[in-house]
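WARN  no MSA supplied for this record, continuing single-sequence
INFO  ligand: N-(iminomethyl)-L-glutamic acid
INFO  echoing inputs
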Amino acid sequence: KRLIDHIGLLWTMSSGSAVQDAQPLCGRTAMQEVGAVTDAAIAIDEEGMIAAIGKSKELQTVIDAQTEIIDANNGFVCPGFVDPHTHLVHGGSREHELPMRLAGADYLDILRMGGGIMSTVQMTRECTEQQLYEQAQKSLLRMRSYGVTCVEAKTGYGLTAATEEKQLRVAKALEQKMAMRFVHTALPAHALPLERKDMRERFVKEAAQMYLELSRQGAEFADVFVDDGAFTIEEGRYLLETAKTAGMKIKLHADELVPLGGAELAAELGAVSADHLLVASDEGLEAMAQAGVLAVCLPGTSFYLQKKPARARFMIDEAQLGVALATDYNPGSAPSENFLLMLSLALFTLRMTPEEIFVAATRNAAAAVDRCAVAGVLRPGRAADVVIFDAPNPQYVLTHYGIQHVARVLVKGEVVYS
Ligand code: NIG
Ligand code: FE
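INFO  complex generated
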């Protein structure tokens, strides 16, 4: 038994009832709901589940000789973060692209020259499972140190059945080993591999089979990179409809570089989320809201690629979307595991409020990977996945940016980072 005591400010992200808490918060009014408690404490049972949340004074009664007290030092506390979009498992890194980028080449130029995703595909194919495992484990430890307790992991750097399955196996092995919650996503349609350069149709057919096989091996979501230099709307529709027939849930890399109508496709297919959305149309974003699709904004990616950020204010204020945040951690467009930095970028580049940012990083991020019923909210009966900050409030965390403010991370009631 444990008691997290002396919490200066707790944001539970709860709206009250268990039924409500299993839903994302959409639109401007709802996204301010943080379930704040001051001078709080969280009682955790032997199974690592939350037994009670309340004022510290009221919870002193639960303390007995067996209770271990975790002192939050009057700091800010919130639910473990959910990172709903990462390319966790990959070989190598891409800092060698830096001179090209500094000389003015943009993301698609580098991809067209056979670099970009292609160079990571080659390195991933060449790596052993052990090498991929070790590299990804290092990233996971970094992510967790910044408060992430649930992570989505995509394939997408294999582009053949054998290597896509290898990536999934590595993510599943890490799931067994690391105290973190995992969500597995298949992304075999991430790019057209060099060996299929002039065989588009053939690759799209192969990719369709890869989704089905990856689903059998435990991938829950199917994702497609629909964009210039990647796959068309028609190809995306065909692949995701195929994945749907196998019972997979849908995500899209949508309208990142060129406005092809990825947001509209996400709405049409009833996707759980559409991600990036830098150049998504008003109509597409409104159609997503109508269809209950969440918008995942990736402020680290727009920052790194020096693109105009997603229109989070339009999404929240006008389209009344539920917005979530993620790192997009990958070697080419978002090489940082620092989730807190993404939250600061959301403040400054997306102009989201602190309340919206924490909703987007917890409850809505959980919803973006269909984990709303188990993650992203602190309430009795849920796992005690908790972040304790060495900071008095969320505004301090966000504005004092680029700094490690996390004092402790708990997963299922166990301290996994301190
Ligand atoms: O989400 N946009 C496409 N895919 C990744 C980047 C992958 C890479 O460059 O290696 C993304 O940004
Ligand atoms: Fe991505």
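The first helix runs from residue 18 to 21.
INFO  checksum written, moving to next record
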